Amino acid sequence: MMKRVLEIAEYILKTKNTIRKTASVFGISKSTVHKDLQERLKEIDLEKYNQIQEIFQNHIETRHILGGQSTKIKYLQIKNCKG
């Protein structure tokens, strides 16, 4: 389990991907990724834990922007198909 936690942490530090994307890459649930990085990593490697927390905080701060962009693109595609 410790190996998986460290692999997931390294992956996120390298790619800065979300928990959802990471879970799909590793073939595990979002809950497992979250528990690994929020609880287990803190006990294994505090420095990596803190780096991951910064990435997650950035995701939280920018998610409304990304959601808005996705919605805009969706409706532009619908508009272009109609006419």
Description:
The protein is mainly alpha-helical. The chain contains 4 helices and no strands. The protein has one domain. Helix content is 89%, strand content 0%. Helix 1 (2-15) crosses helix 3 (30-44) and helix 2 packs across helix 3. It is elongated. The mean pLDDT is 87.
Salient structural properties:
83 residues; mainly alpha; 4 helices
Q: What's this entry about, in short?
A:
With 83 residues, this protein is mainly α. The protein has one domain.
Overall tally of structural domains = 1
Helix content: over 70%
Relative strand content: under 5%
Helical/strand content category: mainly alpha
Number of helices: 4
Query: What is the N-to-C succession of helices and strands?
Result: HHHH
Large-scale geometry:
elongated
Low-confidence segments, ≥5 residues, pLDDT <50?
none
Q: What is the alpha-carbon Rg in Å?
A: 16 Å
Main sheet summary: none
Mean pLDDT: 87
Termini distance?
54 Å
Number of strands: 0
Topology (elements, then pairings):
Blueprint: H1 2-15, H2 19-26, H3 30-44, H4 46-82
